[in-house]
Design the sequence.
């Protein structure tokens, strides 16, 4: 085919969710990615946590889409047989002066619509998680973990069930707006080709701004600066002392949620991510330096004093596309641009879709779908 109703650039969890949603409405949807398979970037390098929606500013897309997305995601996983575990999260204060932050998080979460959120006393914490050292906490029972790869495979299968086409090894070169949509230039396995599409959806993750810059007619002023922020993870050998996810009170400015403890569906404990902004023009690198072990241990020791540094093993790393820079104090929201924001009919740019993007993926897809009228 050389004419499509919609072309989705980027086959991470967001692009897959968008493609699956659009395939239910449009006859011809093309999903492209320059990699050899789906979900090889951001979507395969995270903690697989389903977030409740506690931290984000009131009225933000992150808050609204996280709460809505969580509900959609649990229901989708049940319907499609995807492994999920709503094991719950404990947010802990390790010093009495941090307890005011717990109160603020309780108020923020409830304002965002997180109705299941409960204060924990020191005694309740000791009963719930004996290995913790904390003065107080919050319990979020609706937080969980999901098989992110199973989710992505299910979304791809759903899209293909509705006749969508996935093309790996397909690099987006450029696009030109025309009277009835866009002419899109691709390089597929070394050969250049052109296709036409009524709608173009940019879900390129780390490369969303670079993709946007290749769309002829899109004003440069509508393309923000995107920052790459690397996060490392260390696995913890042996049996986990925790049965819930453990998060310290968040770092100032929400540049990160601190080095927290998460469990995968097999019960493996890991700690991370940290927050390290990369220099502009950095290359993707996912090495985990063993030299970080000491700083991880010091962060973990604050809430888990029985931690043993020798049981920390470098695991993996991910890179987040953040609109909030290293010197910015305000939390940056998701940026979902349609014609009203940039002036090009039929184009939707999704930029800065970091955490809680996995949780919000189905809600984001629904929002994108609603912005595109039936052809």
Sequence:
């Amino acid at each position: 085919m050389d004419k499509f109703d919609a072309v989705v650039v980027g086959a991470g969890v967001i692009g897959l969710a968008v493609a699956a949603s659009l395939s239910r409405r449009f006859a011809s949807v093309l999903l492209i990615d320059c990699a050899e398979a789906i979900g090889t970037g951001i979507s395969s390098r995270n903690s697989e946590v389903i977030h409740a929606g506690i931290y984000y500013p009131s009225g933000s897309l992150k808050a609204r889409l996280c709460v809505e997305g969580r509900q959609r995601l649990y229901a989708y996983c049940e319907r499609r047989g995807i492994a999920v575990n709503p094991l719950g999260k404990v947010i802990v204060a390790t010093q009495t002066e941090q307890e005011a932050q717990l109160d603020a998080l309780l108020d923020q979460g409830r304002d965002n619509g997180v109705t299941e959120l409960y204060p924990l006393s020191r005694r309740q914490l000791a009963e719930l998680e004996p290995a913790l050292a904390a003065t107080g906490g919050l319990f979020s029972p609706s937080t969980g973990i999901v098989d992110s790869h199973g989710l992505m495979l299910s979304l791809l299968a759903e899209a293909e069930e509705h006749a969508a086409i996935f093309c790996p090894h397909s690099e987006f070169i450029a696009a030109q707006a025309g009277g009835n949509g866009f002419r899109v230039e691709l390089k597929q396995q070394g050969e250049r080709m052109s296709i036409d599409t009524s709608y173009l959806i940019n879900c390129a993750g780390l490369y969303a701004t670079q993709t946007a810059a290749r769309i002829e007619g899109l004003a440069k002023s509508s393309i923000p600066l995107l920052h790459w922020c690397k996060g490392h993870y260390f696995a913890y050998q042996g049996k986990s002392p925790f049965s819930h996810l453990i998060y310290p009170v968040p770092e100032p400015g929400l540049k990160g949620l601190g080095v927290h403890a998460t469990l995968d569906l097999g019960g493996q404990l890991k700690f991370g991510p940290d927050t390290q902004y990369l220099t502009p023009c950095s290359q993707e690198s996912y090495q985990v330096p063993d030299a970080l072990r000491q700083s991880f241990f010091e962060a973990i020791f604050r809430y888990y004093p029985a931690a043993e540094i020798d049981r920390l093993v470098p695991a993996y790393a991910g890179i987040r596309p953040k609109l909030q820079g290293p010197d910015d104090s305000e939390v940056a929201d998701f940026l979902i641009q349609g014609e009203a924001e940039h002036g090009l009919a039929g184009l939707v740019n999704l930029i800065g879709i970091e955490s809680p993007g996995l949780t919000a993926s189905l809600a984001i897809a629904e929002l994108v779908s609603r912005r595109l009228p039936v052809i």
